């Protein structure tokens, strides 16, 4: 992550340490967050599924440095994301991702979604429509805020012994209803929570000068790799096995 940031003249991510900015161990409770519930909520989102019965749905192994922590987590349908709301920051999310380097490239590729224009004023996810999960992940990767920090993890959500039906996310299509009784089904994703918040209601995520540097860094890299670059415009000039990785 820091390689692509430094190429664009942005400060390197440090390790997040503040409450609400760190993806916590699944078996602990912080001052503000019940971690087991938080990870259930995150798993519901990244699998696009909801559980119809309060059964154990997650085996969570969190790897911090050289120490692993495991816990079983339960959850029910209808979670309103209350624990996730206690987190602050902007998520970068790579669905079906198992490789950290590939995740960073996926987020970086969100550049093309802005059609070579300075990203518009942000209101909320998909408003304007360009702010899909991938576009938000791009902004999180290139978070321009001062003293940036990040907390990252590789998450595998394993469901078993329950019925499941699709829970559609706005930016995902094609999910189908599946009967999971007696079976296990896994979904893996790479997620990073970056801070300070990179997207605020009523504000553009980048000043034009910062955007120009990002464009120059991306276009220059693509040219050196023999990829047809995006031409700059005039405007320019977020059961489980969870392993926390230092992506930065």
Automatic annotation (TrEMBL):
InterPro entries per the UniProt record, alphabetical: Surface_antigen (IPR021288)
Which Pfam families does the record associate with it?
Surface_antigen
Q: What is this protein called?
A: SAG family member
Species assigned in the record: Eimeria necatrix
Q: What is the lineage of its organism?
A: Eukaryota, Sar, Alveolata, Apicomplexa, Conoidasida
């Amino acid at each position: 992550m820091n390689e692509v940031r430094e190429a664009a003249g942005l400060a390197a991510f440090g390790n997040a340490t503040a409450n609400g900015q760190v993806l916590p161990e699944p078996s602990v409770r912080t001052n503000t967050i019940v971690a087991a519930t938080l990870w259930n909520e995150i798993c519901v989102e990244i699998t696009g599924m909801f559980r119809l019965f309060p059964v154990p749905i997650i085996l969570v192994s969190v790897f911090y440095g050289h120490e692993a922590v495991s816990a079983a987590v339960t959850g029910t349908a209808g979670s309103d994301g209350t624990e996730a709301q206690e987190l602050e920051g902007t998520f970068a999310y790579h669905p079906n991702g198992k490789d950290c380097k590939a995740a960073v490239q996926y987020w970086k590729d969100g550049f093309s979604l802005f059609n070579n224009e300075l990203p518009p004023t942000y209101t909320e996810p998909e408003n304007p429509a360009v702010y899909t999960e991938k576009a938000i992940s791009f902004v999180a990767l290139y978070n321009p805020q001062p003293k940036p920090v990040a907390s990252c993890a590789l998450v595998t959500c394993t469901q078993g012994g329950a019925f499941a039906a699709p829970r559609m996310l706005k930016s995902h299509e094609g999910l189908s209803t599946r009967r999971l009784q007696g079976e296990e089904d896994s979904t893996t994703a790479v997620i990073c929570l970056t801070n300070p918040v990179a997207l605020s209601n009523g504000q553009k995520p980048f000043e034009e000068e910062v955007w120009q540097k990002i464009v120059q860094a991306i276009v220059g890299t693509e040219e050196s790799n023999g990829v047809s670059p995006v031409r700059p415009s005039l405007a320019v000039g977020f059961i489980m096995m969870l392993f926390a990785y230092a992506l930065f």
